[in-house]
Structure formats: C-alpha cells, structure tokens
Amino acid sequence: MAAVELGFLWISPVFLGYGIPGGDGSGVVLVPGFLGTDLLLTQLHTWLSRIGYQSFYSGIRVNAECPNLLIRQHLTAAIEGAYSSTKRKVHVIGHSLGGTMARAVAAQMPDRIASVITLASPMRRIGAHAAVLRVAEMVRKEIHKRQGGNVLPDCYTANCTCRFVESLLGKIPSSVRQTAIYSRCDGIMDWRLCRTGDPDVDVEVSSTHMGQVFSPLVYKIVAERLAGNRRVGKNAAA
Questions:
Q1: How far apart are the C-alpha atoms of 152 and 162, rounded to whole Å?
Q2: Mean pLDDT by 10-residue block, N- to C-terminus, for the chain (238 residues)?
Q3: Are 26 and 226 spatial neighbours (Cβ–Cβ below 8 Å)?
Q4: pTM as predicted
Q5: What is the largest CA-CA distance in the chain?
Q6: Where are any strands of DSSP class E within 77-184?
Q7: Closest CA to 59 of 43, 45, 42, 77
Q8: What's domain 2-226's architecture?
C-alpha cells in the first residue's frame, strides 16, 4: 500500500506545490524511522526544498542504534548545521521512531527548534506489531554486543534511564509547536500511542505506517503546520 500512496503523491497537486502555503526558507531536519535511512525520506526532502524550505537529512545511516547515541552523534549536529545555515530556529520532522527522537531532541534543544512534527510516532511507550518487536529485540542484542559499556544495561527497552528516555518523560517547552500525525490504518504501530491527547496537536489521516512519508494528505498537513497554521482539522482524511 505504501507504493500506491507514493504513486498518488507523484500525481498530486500538493507534490507540485499547488494549494499549500509556501516555505519561508527555514531549515527542516528529517529523521528516519526504525531500520530506516535518510534515503527513505528523499521524496519529502525534495518536496520541502521545492516549496521553499531548506531541507536537511539527519546523517543517520540506519536507525538501528541506541537513540541516545544517534541523537548525540548525528541529530544534534544536523540541527546545529541547519540553524547555522538559516540563522533561525529549525523544524524537525520524524517518522516512527525518528519522530520519538525528534520529540526528545526538541525537549533538549528548545532554543534551536521551532516545531516538531511526528509521523506515526509513539509518544512515550511502544505498542507495535509482534514481528516488529521481535526485530527490535534482535537490534537490542546487537547494540549491546557492538557498544558494550557505551550504553546502559536497559538500552533499547522501556526501562532505560538515558537522557533520551528522560527527555520523553518531560514536557516539550511551549515555544516549540507540536504536531502528531497518526492513522487508525497504521498496521505497524498502535495508533492510540501516536497521539498526545491534545486536539490542537493530534491530526488523523488515512494512511499506512510506511505510507505516511509518501502520503499527499500528510504533506498538505506538514505544509500548513510548518507555516504556523493551527486551524487544521483534527481529522484530515475522514
């Protein structure tokens, strides 16, 4: 279904920049989801540049590492680079686990971040398809084997106490605008965990989990939220 959504994106007027607010030259940093790479966000990256933003990749080769390390080694540098290039606060958009990381870094760097937009991202705890959880357990074991003492014993579990997890438990400052896009048709994540509970933040679309990075419905909401439009309806795709 994600391939179908990509096809709809290519023929959508939104992808060409019609009917949506244009960008103001601000920087937007994109963060891939679990096991994802920056390449999966190529369409979103290209589109953001087309409508008037400066789009930046996270620098994460594969999102299969301790999130705390990825934030320290890549995401923080990407945000600082975007801030330095544009001389203004940066927007961060993350898909799935990448969105959870985006929320954490927004709590850590509110002086550098204007807004955070999450696409099918769990807010504070994980509720995913059993197959995904099995893969996550394999990744956890590889992280401990590879990193050893560089990570905490409970790394990649709900019991971890690293700065990444602590940031998620705290509140994002009100200066950082938030948007949480979710879908009841997700199929991978428990959509109920991808909401904040704030109707001004949560926006529902009809999309698959992977398809959120291709959906023209999502792109329209992203354009409006980046432009600061807070009047987007709670259900964008009934």
A1: 7
A2: 80 93 96 93 96 96 90 95 97 96 94 97 66 68 74 70 79 93 92 93 94 94 85 44
A3: yes
A4: 0.87
A5: 52
A6: 90-95, 113-119, 177-182
A7: 77
A8: 3-Layer(aba) Sandwich (3.40)
